[in-house]
Amino acid sequence: MKITSSCLVLAALLAQVHAETSLTIYNQNFGVVRDTVPLDLQQGVNQVRFADTTAHLEPDSVILRDPKSGVKLSILEQNYRADPISSGLLLNLNEGKEIEFFVRETNKPDRVVKGKIIRSGYVTHNQSAMQRYGNRYYQSQMAMAQGTSQPVIEVEGQLQFSLPGEPRFPALADDTILKPTLDWRIHTDKAAKLDAELCYVTGGMSWEADYNVVSPEKGDVMDLTGWVTIDNQCGKTFKDAKLQLIAGDVAKLQEDGNDYRYPASGAFAPAANKSAPAVTEKAFDEYHLYSLPLPTTLHDRETKQVEFVRAAGVKSQCLFIYDGVAIDQNRYRGWTYDNIRNDESYGTQSNPKVWVMREIKNSEDNKLGMPLPKGKVRFYRQDDDGKLQFVGEDVIDHTARDETLRLYTGNAFDLVGERKRTNIKVDSSNHWIDESFEIKVRNRKQDESVEIRVVEHLYRWTNWEIREPSNAFEKKDAQTIEFRIPLKPGEEKTLTYTVHYSW
Q1: Which terminal residue of the chain, N or C, has fewer Cβ atoms less than 10 Å from its own Cβ?
Q2: pLDDT at 228 over 90
């Protein structure tokens, strides 16, 4: 097939002139980039270069199309080059050749020496292969590179493991690239000028949600602010781009067959300031699509934060939980009910700590009422001098509207629990066990009454009966019960119960 001389290179035009860029970022290190590429095509085969892609582009994800004018584009060949020119690459390209080195030394005149490049010490990083094969490829490349990363230069018949000076290279060839580049051979049946749409998947981009909660010196009414943190490590700066974020469990396959369903978060709600441009949300396919209100510039190696929710006067409840069983999960990993029943010491170790939990209703009545993306929640409380003090953090999962958040923020200093087994009877022939416990909880606060929720796990078998409980309890699930114990300042209380297992 003949390539006409009038359509050999459009690289300068494509590198400099293209319309708006938009991108959609997923929160597991990948995104979708959409660029507009102006094309001036002649009838027949055209050689086209686009020198403004990311350094982590997945070559087999590239789509180049003309959705508007209807010109039929046939891409005969596509080449992706992600190894821009550098001193190390030029040393690599000139291995076996003699070049000049400019030598500058203190108290000596500048001079030029000639040296033959025996080994450049440069390791090529194949970005597309890293995308395809992931960390295993990277690790194997690094293993092969060990011991060969030093250059070897022959100067006046002697070898040295360093550059003798600043290398001077011959002029660049016409096919040298300065940025990651896509090269196409495009066939069209007629001459046309058009704005083609370029779309591709790239690595090196991610986002996550974070929340800051501020409480006053006293009380549990708080203010909540949510941020989206966007991280761009893809090797490209996006100037004045339209930015969107995808939330949902998106399946992303690795080349080795592993199926990764990336949990990309729940929904956004606009900030409380109604006059300010707000993040908008809409359903898209089986996911949610969120759009930033204004174009934004996202620099390479930049972390950008955007506020997406602000709520004042959110009510919360502080809970004190005593879960008194201390179990070494590593020791008992994989144990069955039979193993547990046959080990009388299982579940007899005591945990003295009382947990501090925050419970928040995600409802409209509570100034929230929007799906909240998975993310870290940091709690601050104002002290008597008006200063904010950090008092704990936890992570929430994707939380739907009208669901309740329960977050662990630390252990109470002045609340103490103590748990011990007081009796056990085992009748293996008749298939039953009776096990008795005594639990003490103490409130060492001097001026505050509290309620401690004592949680007990019935771990030996699914059939059980509580006998002789000293306090009322609530069954939380098939193998968990909870006692609620009110305590005045300085008060200690003891609760007891026996559980009867049968199988």
Answers
A1: N
A2: no
